[in-house]
Automatic annotation (TrEMBL):
Belongs to the peptidase M1 family. Gene3D superfamilies: 1.25.50.20. Transmembrane segments: none annotated. The keyword Transmembrane does not apply. This is PSA aminopeptidase. GO terms for biological process: peptide catabolic process; proteolysis. Residues 5-233 form the ERAP1-like C-terminal domain. GO terms for molecular function: metalloaminopeptidase activity; peptide binding; zinc ion binding. The keyword Hydrolase applies. One of its GO terms (cellular component) is cytoplasm. It comes from Baryphthengus martii. Pfam families: ERAP1_C.
Length: 234
């Protein structure tokens, strides 16, 4: 992908963004997954600059046409990749603060929590990410309650991976404390901390400080195995 050339200084990042804009009518999941990943890298790099908000606007502009085409509900005869694509696109739009996506995510989350209409598995992560990214302490408390009540480990893991999307510094600390609690299996702690590190600029700083402050406990827990190296990588 051209982004690797841009990162190497061979071509301008502006040229990369122009290439991305050309994919607005692309129906292929793999292409959108690649676009999403590369835009995520750009967002991370630009989070320390004045351009961060502008890249969020760009994300909304690129992903909203495919989001409108896909909608929120499965269409007759669609395949597994269409469901994956819907989750990817709605999650990207929601996290970037796309107004209509955020409003619909909040509505569907409320119905889910109240048991009126349970979210399908493929929509849970994008909805959870969206409401957390733009949520408050009540939102986080609700998510932690859903985690505690979840019967299946798959749902617990799904929630653990997205908790780091929360934005406020004091709530980020709450998520990091939760990562080392008995509520989270030791092998899943890294996913929670990694989610915080990938959630925001504030999250990265907080996660790195948290790892340093709790290094002895974390190192003793994982004894130099692959999980400790994964933790450092994230």
């Amino acid at each position: 992908f051209p982004l690797s050339q841009a990162r190497a200084g061979i071509i301008s990042t502006v040229e990369v963004l122009k290439v991305m804009e050309a994919f607005v009518n692309e129906p292929n999941y793999t292409v959108w997954s690649d676009l999403s990943c590369n835009l995520g890298i750009l967002s991370t790099l630009l989070s320390h600059t004045d351009f961060y908000e502008e890249i969020q606007v760009f994300v909304k502009d690129v992903f909203s046409p495919i989001g409108e085409r896909l909608g929120w509900d499965p269409k007759p005869g669609e395949g597994h990749l269409d469901a994956l694509l819907r989750g990817l696109v709605l999650g990207k739009l929601g996290k970037a603060g796309h107004k209509a996506t955020l409003e619909e995510a909040r509505r569907r989350f409320k119905d889910h929590v109240e048991g009126k209409h349970i979210l399908s598995a493929d929509l849970r992560s994008p909805v959870y990410v969206t409401i957390l990214k733009h949520g408050d302490s009540t939102t986080l408390d609700t998510m932690l309650k859903l985690h505690k009540q979840a019967d299946m480990q798959e749902e617990k893991n799904r929630i653990e991976r997205v908790l780091g999307a929360i934005s406020q510094p004091e709530l980020i600390q709450k998520v990091l404390t939760f990562a080392l609690s008995e509520e989270v299996r030791p092998q899943d702690t890294v996913s929670v901390i990694g989610g915080v590190a990938g959630g925001s600029k504030q999250g990265r700083k907080a996660a790195w400080k948290f790892v340093r402050d709790n290094w002895e406990e974390l190192y003793n827990r994982y004894q130099g195995g692959f999980l400790i190296s994964r933790l450092i990588k994230v």
